[in-house]
Amino acid sequence: MVRTNSRRRKSSGWSLYKDLMTEGVTPVGHVPTDDGGRMDISMATRPPLRIVHTSDTHLQHDRLLCSADTLGEGLPSGDVLVHSGDFNRYKVNCCVRSTHYEDLLYQIDTFFASFPHKLKVFVAGNHEGCLEGVSSQEIQRHLSNCVYLCDSSTQFAGLNFYGSPFTASRLLTVATGFSESWRRLKRRWSLIPDSTDILITHMPPLGILDLASEMLPNKWPSLFRLKTAILPPSTCGTCGFVHVGRQHWGCPVLRETVLNRVKPKLHLFGHVHESYGTLQRDNTVFSNGAFLFKRKYNVFDYYLEEKEGL
Ligand SMILES: [Zn+2]
Ligand SMILES: [Zn+2]
Hints:
- By secondary structure, this protein is α/β, with parallel strands linked by helices.
- The chain has one domain: Purple Acid Phosphatase, chain A, domain 2 (4-Layer Sandwich), CATH 3.60.21.10.
- It contains seven helices and 16 strands.
- It has helices at residues 12-20, 101-113, 136-141, 182-190, 215-219, 221-230, 252-262; strands spanning 25-29, 49-54, 80-83, 119-122, 147-148, 152-156, 159-164, 167-168, 179-180, 198-201, 211-213, 246-248, 266-269, 277-281, 284-288, 298-303.
- The protein has a six-stranded mixed β-sheet with strand order 1-16-2-3-4-5. It has a six-stranded mixed β-sheet with strand order 6-7-10-13-15-14, with no helix packed on it.
- Bound molecules: zinc ion (2 copies).
- The site of one zinc ion has 6 residues, from loops.
């Protein structure tokens, strides 16, 4: 229930939180509104849940360990910290299948141990191929500082978090962990419960923060020029723009599932390094937290319903 006429109540925790409110924090969830239906976070009767999201750190996570007021891009504190996959090395010649999974899990757990958040969640990505085929119980056995989600969910503060690592198989890549055909992906997304409040996938939905650079212009520019000469650039059928040298990597069925069935308040993902950012469609806020290129993370204040509680 959204309280539109409630008297403003303040607790000591709330005033502390107001101090933490800075630019760059996106309000999500049941954001209070005034009588005119405009968002007014000052009408909240209790502190929101602060959620910090990062992804695709590709072994550059040391940059996130510094505190925000010192050097580096240190992650801010909060209630929930989510890493939505591709913690592992990026370079193509370091095939992740050669990494012993226990070493990787040790690094992941040490990373999460550095942060004070009450709930810390990790979802694998296509660069975590060494975790594929290892049971969730075995992986969780090596992780004492975070919750590992693999087509599974966890609850915190009355909210349902659901995570899935799967992405679409791509040609010319060795990072093929948790990669599936489009047909099998459709089955994966059908497992997402309707009751999900916060969805975490490595895969973006089609047309939402999913524009990636094509390989052809970078690796074989003359071939790319030939291609554009034969097939002149045209308007994209997905987004309506012309984006030469860039293509959508997102999944159409995931988009359909999120926008028309599950309708989570927040969808956190990564995978496409070029499309870091946040945006809102209908009542869902989308977050591409890919760290590698932009060196940024996303922060949300989730306002709880009256029945939800910390
Ligand atoms: Zn497009
Ligand atoms: Zn990825």
